[in-house]
Write a structure and sequence with these properties.
The protein has 246 residues and is α/β, with parallel strands linked by helices. It is built from eleven helices and six strands. Helix 2 packs across helix 9 and helix 7 packs antiparallel against helix 11.
Length: 246
């Protein structure tokens, strides 16, 4: 069951979230939307600050952003020219039946109440439309990234997603999945900024936040792959799922 405190913790750090969180590789977005018309009518559900919205707009689609957190909506609108985010959630989408060719979810599906969200997403989709949740996950096959995840208590993994994202309810066909590799280049301070946008950090005590910062700085100073570097390359595994509305 999701923790509502964590799920709605991001608004206070919306500007940092938008600055430091990774973008989605174009290949993953094209795969999620494969076979749909261009321009298609796409809903970005749990849109956050609009990182996914802007990626889909760049592919020529029309995007309706839906986000429950007012702080995140404000940042989305400030960073995404010409886009107004609608107040709504996966369990209550403020759109009519059959509205969308696709519903995409970036980094948010794990917060949904699936029993309520799946029928609502199906309602908003036209027959044959696509539902595609997508995640950017750090590539823990890289030793220093494994240590980063341990320190920051970042527990989401590709294996966990494949075990837990298995169907989207009776209104959808069986989901397919695909993986895409990409990287981001960060300064030391930008890496710290990214970690500070994680829900565990945002809801932690000041003492715990200081402890995580100290351990991360120690990792950056002492790990042989990082010591002495002003910038570092953080590898990601982007995992996308896709299912069609029956």
């Amino acid at each position: 069951m999701t923790d509502p405190t964590q799920a709605l913790s991001f608004g206070a750090a919306a500007a940092a979230y938008d600055r430091f969180r990774p973008r989605y590789p174009e290949a993953a977005l094209r795969w999620a939307l494969d076979g749909l018309p261009v321009p298609g009518r796409v809903v970005d559900l749990g849109a956050g600050t609009g990182i996914l919205t802007r990626g889909v707009l760049a592919l020529g689609h029309d995007v309706t952003a839906v986000e429950p957190d007012p702080g995140m909506r404000a940042q989305l609108e400030a960073a995404t020219v010409g886009t107004t985010a609608q107040d709504g959630s996966a369990e209550s989408v403020p759109l009519p039946d059959g509205y969308a060719d696709a519903v995409l979810v970036g980094q948010a599906y794990h917060w949904f109440d699936r029993e309520r969200a799946h029928p609502e997403i199906a309602r908003v989709l036209r027959s044959g439309g696509a539902f595609a949740p997508i995640w950017n996950l750090r590539d823990d096959r890289t030793p220093w990234v494994t240590e980063l995840s341990r320190i920051a208590e970042i527990g989401d993994t590709v294996d966990h997603l494949l075990e837990t994202v298995t169907d989207f309810g009776p209104a959808f066909g069986p989901p397919e999945w695909a993986e895409f590799a990409h990287t981001t280049t960060l300064t030391r301070d930008e890496l710290l900024g990214m970690v500070r946008t994680r829900s565990h950090h945002l809801t932690a005590t000041p003492e715990r936040r200081a402890e995580v910062d100290r351990k991360l700085r120690d990792l950056l100073d002492t790990h042989p792959d990082l010591a002495g570097r002003d910038t570092l390359v953080l590898p990601y595994r982007t995992v996308a799922f896709r299912a069609r509305r029956r």
